[in-house]
């Protein structure tokens, strides 16, 4: 089972509507369960995000950093890492 940081959970709770039309979680516990159920990942760099998206079937190899950051599946975390939720 993944162990998501408080920063990660709070970021997802606050920005989940960038990916979904309605909230999928109301509490930190619900958010953590959702992230675990959907096999969300935390990656260290934008290059890692690009590689992960590409391996997941998204044609991301030619996307710029800004284009990747605008993807609804990518959540920039305050500490410089990235949460990716492929729901």
Instruction: Tell me which oligomeric state these chains represent.
Output: single chain
In round numbers, the mean pLDDT is: 95
- Topology order in helix (H) and strand (E) letters: HHEHHEE
Count of alpha and pi helical runs: 4
Explain what this protein looks like in three dimensions:
- This is Glyoxalase.
- It comes from Hominisplanchenecus faecis.
- With 87 residues, this protein is of the alpha+beta class.
- It has one domain.
- 41% of the residues lie in helices and 10% in strands.
- It is built from 4 helices and 3 strands; from the N terminus they run H-H-E-H-H-E-E.
- The protein has helices spanning 6-15, 28-37, 46-55, 65-70, and strands spanning 41-43, 74-76, 82-84.
- A 3-stranded antiparallel beta sheet has the order 1-3-2.
- Helix 1 (6-15) packs across helix 2.
Gist?
The chain is α+β, with helices and mostly antiparallel strands and 87 residues long. Helix content is 41%, strand content 10%. The chain is built from four helices and three strands; from the N terminus they run ααβααββ.
Topology:
Elements: H1 6-15, H2 28-37, E1 41-43, H3 46-55, H4 65-70, E2 74-76, E3 82-84
Antiparallel strand pairs: 1-3, 2-3
Helix pairs in contact: 1-2
Protein name: Glyoxalase
Descriptive keywords:
alpha+beta; 4 helices; single chain
